[in-house]
Amino acid sequence: GRVKMSVEEILMCPVKLGKNFCLYFDGLECDALCKEKTLHRVLRNVNSQLLVVRPDLNLAAFENVTDQEIKSDKGMLFSIHCYKTTTPLAGLPVAFSVQVGDKSYYMCCERECGEMIIRFKEGEVPKEMPGESNIIFFKKTFTSCSSKAFKFEYSMERGMFLAFEVEGSLRKLILKKPSKDEVDETIKMFI
Questions:
Q1: Which pairs from 148-154 meet CB under 8 Å and 24+ separation?
Q2: Contacts by 114-117 with C-beta closer than 8 Å and gap 24+?
Q3: Domains of the chain in sequence order
Q4: Considering the entire predicted model, what is its pTM?
Q5: Which first-to-last residue range defines the signal peptide (predicted)?
Q6: Which residues pair with 66 in a beta bridge?
């Protein structure tokens, strides 16, 4: 015969504890971010250089790479994980991960000696997370007139953007607060 379902079973809802232990229910509109889609892209700076991640050297820098040299497992091809948002004005919440060899690394920010440092850590990007997280960046158009260039604002510290900094022969990926008065090309990215 048919199994009778009790009312208790029907009413059970998956519940998660969010930030500050506030309850939220899966499937309901919430400030939590749910992964919507993943784009596979290279990231370029204004010099058309490609962002390359080298976890063994703890380094991410923009380098001259020809289209022929782009390899998906050499730390050049990024997965840009886009999350649904209830506040589109802030920009599209994205997280970055990259394949190096047979391992996956995700990008996050950490405060070190009073400075924000970008790190790549081994592991996968979560499917859901609170609205703010040290791996979430808001993707915005660089200027209102160009839809091709973007800037990525760090979700936990507004006004801080992914950028590059010239250090010797390197153009290292950093987080910086650009000055409001001038256009800062170092935070301009193409994907």
A1: 148/190, 149/188, 149/189, 149/190, 150/188, 150/189, 150/190, 150/191, 151/187, 151/188, 151/189, 152/94, 152/187, 152/189, 153/90, 153/91, 154/109, 154/116
A2: 116/154, 116/157, 116/160, 116/175, 117/175
A3: 33-190 (2.80.10.50)
A4: 0.80
A5: none
A6: none
* Location of structure tokens 């193409």: 190
What are 14-54's pLDDT values in tens digits? 555 444 444 444 444 445 688 889 999 999 999 999 999 99
Q: What Å distances lie between residue 158 and 6, 60, 96, 131, 176, CA to CA?
A: 49, 22, 18, 13, 10
Please write the tens of the pLDDT for every residue from 61-101: 999 999 899 988 999 999 999 988 777 778 999 999 999 99
In terms of Cα–Cα distance, which of 90, 105, 110, 93 is closest to 51? 105
pLDDT for residue 27: 41
